[in-house]
Write a structure and sequence with these properties.
It is found in: Cell inner membrane; Cell membrane. This is Iron ABC transporter permease. One of its GO terms (cellular component) is plasma membrane. Keywords: Cell inner membrane, Cell membrane, Membrane, Transmembrane, Transmembrane helix, Transport. It comes from Mycetocola zhujimingii. By secondary structure, this protein is mainly alpha-helical. It folds into 2 domains: about 270 residues, MetI-like (MetI-like fold); about 280 residues, MetI-like fold (Orthogonal Bundle), CATH 1.10.3720.10. It is about 70% helix and about 0% strand. It contains 31 helices and no strands. It is globular and about 75 Å long.
Length: about 600
């Protein structure tokens, strides 16, 4: 770090403009709304008041929701790890027949989640679901509400949040040095002892990390509890949505959101402290690639195969049934009886032929595309400034830009609603609450930390000599950025844009607070279709929505994963025979700072 870097910043007009806009954005949309939320909760009349705390303690519903949230988070920390570690081992560590097929089934959570996943399970196993009605046709005494409450929420979220294991834990497993396993086997260690004493301890850093992520996901879960929890199991997030709808209980909603935010900050602080201690997190260079291990015990091998394929059915069944039901008349789904005459293309004709039905899908696509392009386009300049000029000012700005990573989305949304419901001088005296703009602002905010981290890494991978050469040739800073730097980070920027677009398509957490009634996004439309028997006519339309979303998300994952994986293999093969890849570093914008990292970091479960 150079002491003169601050002075160098002030000599660049482009940097000055970027810094001014950045400071305004941080003050207006990151700091002021959250501070205003705290003030309105604890200082409603200009003086400190504990009224919100008293209301929380005296509210049985609110206290029960707190207990349910922590119970769900603790339970998922166990169940998700059990299932997640198992599916990683059977697809990446043990020799299991059909492992590639199993991986495809387990990876279905990559292409659907959030409100789409919760609604899918509800339409299959819920009160009016196909499986429930089919079973009740044979055994009428079966409770139609069997798939609801704590059991249903835990089951759905357990299989929805193993995405982190599929991505992160699989990557860590591949880095284990196979020579250590061979050495242990030569010393007489059994397969299970090697797994328990060598493999799992080596995975401990990532297991700890995904456990924290799982706990946070369970603590702030909204869509699964609100769709499947029923009246007896509601968590903090659904209660915040309920209380925020009334001005008399909005302070209670704010306090619950603050509690959720504090819990998130504490857990992330603990995670960072453990990481800095060096006890769990380490990086080792792999000398020998890991080879899959055979299960020597025949009985154990059979049991592992059976459990693996049972899980495959649980993972793949919702996706296959949703695709099937999108071509079936809704009456057949509701009665639990499907015949050849039940199949039709009317559902797709209705969606694509009726503007009012297609409108939520188009609205979500527009919102997601605008947010994805704006956040990447804006942060291209910001990340470059932060990466190039290291001083207390840029460090402070970088920390502030990570605020959306430590606060739950519902807290950010509620703060925006409560702040911009009156004229605000920071935005020229405008009122944003109730407009179509505020949801776009929220989408941009929640994607800032992820986008910033990876764009900064992409710029860091570019050699300084390229910019120095351009400067020596007389190129201005803006010209250098446009002609030299920008083309090198395009692959990473494109991948980030695709993943941001992907993750916002079916958003519900922010939309439920901020959407405009005339521009209803897809998440709200899908949630409405799960509410009671009166909305069952929209079930088939929701199936079509879900299929379209899975196609888009699957295509995005292919563009980010498949193409980058293929290019990586080609580079590896070329380097083996002595090509350029063996002679120098990987191209900027790939590998550690490129699409592989983007794809891994961008796959957060949405439940």
């Amino acid at each position: 770090m150079r002491n003169s870097s601050l002075g160098a910043m002030l000599r660049s007009p482009l940097v000055i403009v970027v810094s001014v806009v950045l400071v305004w954005f941080i003050a207006t949309f990151l700091l002021f709304p959250n501070i205003n939320l705290l003030v309105s909760t604890f200082f409603p009349g200009g003086e400190f008041s504990a009224r919100a705390v008293e209301k929380l303690v005296s509210s049985e519903r609110a206290m029960k929701s707190l207990w349910h949230s922590f119970l769900l988070a603790i339970t998922l920390s166990v169940t998700v790890n059990v299932v997640g570690i198992f599916i990683v081992l059977v697809t990446k560590y043990f020799q299991i027949r059909g492992a590639r097929v199993l991986w495809l089934g387990y990876a279905t959570t990559l292409i659907y989640g959030g409100i789409v996943l919760a609604a899918g399970y509800n339409f299959i196993y819920g009160r009016y679901g196909f499986i429930t009605n089919a079973v009740r046709n044979v055994w009428p005494e079966v409770d139609p509400n069997w798939f609801s409450g704590f059991f249903a929420v835990v089951l759905v979220m357990t299989f929805a949040t193993t995405t982190n294991h599929m991505l992160f834990l699989s990557s860590s497993l591949a880095k284990i040095d196979y020579q250590t396993i061979e050495a242990a086997r030569n010393m007489g260690a059994s397969t299970w002892r090697i797994l328990w004493k060598i493999v799992l301890p080596a995975l401990r850093p990532m297991i700890f990390a995904v456990t924290v992520l799982t706990f946070l996901t369970g603590l702030g879960a909204l869509t699964a509890p609100i769709v499947l929890g029923g009246p007896d199991f509601q968590t903090i997030a659904p209660m915040i949505v309920t209380f925020s709808k009334s001005t008399s209980s909005r302070d209670l909603a704010a306090l619950l959101a603050i509690i959720l935010g504090v819990a998130t900050i504490i857990l992330l602080a603990v995670m960072n402290r453990v990481e800095k201690s060096g006890v769990y997190f380490s990086v080792a260079k792999v000398a020998t690639p890991l080879q899959k291990q055979r299960i020597p015990n025949r009985a154990a091998n059979v049991i592992v195969h059976i459990v693996a394929y049972i899980l495959f059915v649980i993972y793949a069944a919702p996706v296959l049934l949703i695709v099937l039901f999108s071509f079936v008349d809704s009456t057949a789904v509701l009665t639990g009886s499907i015949t050849l005459s039940s199949f039709t293309l009317d559902n797709y004709a209705t969606v694509f032929g009726t503007p009012a039905v297609l409108r939520p899908f188009v609205v979500s696509v527009v919102y997601s595309a605008l947010a994805a392009f704006i956040v990447v386009g804006g942060l291209l300049f910001v990340s470059r400034v932060i990466q190039k000029y290291r001083n207390p000012v840029t460090s402070t700005l970088e920390y502030l830009l990570h605020i959306p990573w430590i606060l739950p989305t519902i807290l950010i949304a509620l703060a925006l609603v409560m702040t911009f419901d009156r004229p605000n001088p920071l935005i020229g005296g405008q009122v944003l609450t109730g407009t179509a703009v505020l949801l776009l602002v929220a989408y941009i905010i929640v994607k800032i930390p992820f986008t910033l981290r990876l764009l900064k890494a992409a710029f860091a991978s570019i050699p300084d000599s390229l910019e120095d050469a351009a400067r020596i040739l007389g190129a201005k800073s803006l010209f250098t950025f446009r002609k030299v730097l920008f083309p090198l980070v395009i692959p990473t920027a494109a991948a980030i844009t695709a993943l941001n677009f992907n993750s916002l398509l079916d958003d519900y957490d922010a939309a439920v607070f901020l959407y405009h009634p005339l521009y209803e996004p897809l998440g709200i439309a899908i949630k409405a279709s799960t509410e009671g028997e009166n909305n069952l006519d929209s079930m088939s339309i929701t199936f079509v929505y879900t299929v379209l979303l899975m196609i888009i998300m699957g295509l995005t994952m292919y563009l980010v994963y498949g193409r980058s994986a293929g290019s990586k293999k080609r580079r590896t093969r070329f380097s083996v025979i002595g090509g350029p890849a063996a002679a120098g570093p990987a191209a900027p914008g790939t590998d550690a700072a490129g699409t592989d990292a983007v794809a891994t970091a961008g796959a957060n479960p949405r439940t």
